[in-house]
Structure formats: C-alpha cells, structure tokens
C-alpha cells in the first residue's frame, strides 16, 4: 500500500516553493508519490493568467527527473459542472483503491472548508485525509476546534499538520507581478520554467 499526496494548485506559474513544499511534505509524511494537479481554467473560483497548455508545460518541465513527482491533468479535462475537490478525490481513490490518498493544502484552505466555502464540505472532510501546511498567522489547531465540520470529523488521522518551516510566502502572484513590471524573479522558479516564460513572453503587461 502506497501513500499518495494530491497537490492541487493553479501553478500559474509553478515556483521553487511549490517544488520545495512538495519535496518536504513527501519526506516528512513518508509519501511514495506526490501528484501535481493543476486546476482547470473552467473553474469559476479561479482567475488564471495564462493557458492550461502553458501551465501544464511548465509544470511537467519543473518536475522532470524526480521519480516521486507525477503530473496529472484530470481536472483540466473535466467539465465545469464536475469540478470540485470532493469529486477529484473520489476519482483518485477509485484510481488507486489499494493506496492511502491525502489531499495536500495550506492552512488557509482548511479555514475555507471549515466555513463551508467549498462544495460538499462536510462530505469532503468526512471521507478524506488531509496534509495541512502552515500559513503565517493561522493557528491550525484553533481552526479545527472552531469549526463544527472539522472537529466532528477528525478521528485523529483526518488532518496531518505540518507546522514547522513550511510558511514560505513567495507566491506565483509575486512572480507574475515582477514579470509584469519588469522585475527579475529568475531564481524564484525553476530555470527551465523561467526560460519558458521568457520564450513565450508570459505574464508581461
């Protein structure tokens, strides 16, 4: 039985922090595989800044050569009505029926789920396991205890909290802003992705 982490994000673009986070989570949580899952441009809650094709190409370039990292375009292929984390995790549990599946997310998303801002929030928590990464200013234990959904569906193994040394705040937004305004974010994303961005003139104003 393998332990698999599902790491969903816009990856717009993928950054060195994404890669470092995935590597650190895999090491600390003893994951056999991390599946990088770029979200679809069809999602109504996301405002993306380049095409699915460019995001996918950069992500696959970034993880090439790491046997623990796998790219999956499941969400990109779904119709808009079927796009929810609950449906996505259901898919991966059916795809890997003999393995343990964990959804990797930041503590800010934990709060959103606890406040029922996600579709099927209660079913999502009740039926799945989560690896939650620290975010600056968020008390993860307090967030769980304050939410009836989170605290009443926590059997001790529902949430694996990673609260040491993972609150790095350099984001895709920061990189996009630098590129748009003529800044130099070269060493904040993989070199191959930086070259791809320059070649295709992505994120320029």
TrEMBL record:
Alphabetized GO MF terms: nicotinate-nucleotide adenylyltransferase activity
Pathway where this protein functions: Cofactor biosynthesis; NAD(+) biosynthesis; deamido-NAD(+) from nicotinate D-ribonucleotide: step 1/1
Domain Cytidyltransferase-like as annotated: residue spans: 6-177
InterPro entries: Cyt_trans-like (IPR004821), NadD/NMNAT (IPR005248), Rossmann-like_a/b/a_fold (IPR014729)
EC number: 2.7.7.18
Broad EC category: transferase
UniProt cross-references to SUPFAM superfamilies, sorted A to Z: Nucleotidylyl transferase
Family annotation (Pfam families): CTP_transf_like (PF01467)
Record's function text: Catalyzes the reversible adenylation of nicotinate mononucleotide (NaMN) to nicotinic acid adenine dinucleotide (NaAD).
Family note: Belongs to the NadD family.
Name under which the protein is recorded: Probable nicotinate-nucleotide adenylyltransferase
Taxonomic source organism: Priestia iocasae
Gene (name only): nadD
């Amino acid at each position: 039985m393998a332990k698999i982490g599902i790491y969903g994000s816009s990856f717009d673009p993928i950054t060195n922090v994404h890669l470092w986070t995935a590597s650190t989570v895999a090491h600390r949580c003893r994951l056999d595989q991390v599946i990088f899952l770029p979200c679809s441009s069809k999602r109504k809650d996301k405002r993306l800044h380049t095409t699915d094709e460019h995001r996918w190409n950069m992500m696959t370039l970034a993880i090439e050569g790491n046997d623990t990292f796998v790219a999956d375009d499941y969400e990109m292929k779904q119709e808009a009505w079927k796009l929810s984390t609950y449906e996505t995790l259901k898919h991966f549990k059916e795809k890997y029926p003999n393995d343990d599946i964990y959804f990797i997310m930041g503590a800010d998303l934990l709060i959103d789920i606890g406040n029922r801002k996600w579709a099927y929030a209660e079913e999502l928590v009740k039926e799945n396991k989560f690896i939650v990464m620290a975010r600056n200013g968020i008390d993860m234990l307090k967030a769980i205890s304050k939410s009836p959904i989170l605290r009443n569906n926590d059997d001790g193994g529902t949430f694996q909290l990673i609260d040491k040394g993972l609150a790095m705040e350099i984001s895709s937004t920061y990189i996009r802003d630098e590129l748009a305004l003529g800044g130099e974010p070269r060493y904040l994303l993989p070199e191959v992705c930086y070259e791809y961005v320059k070649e295709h003139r992505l994120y320029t104003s």
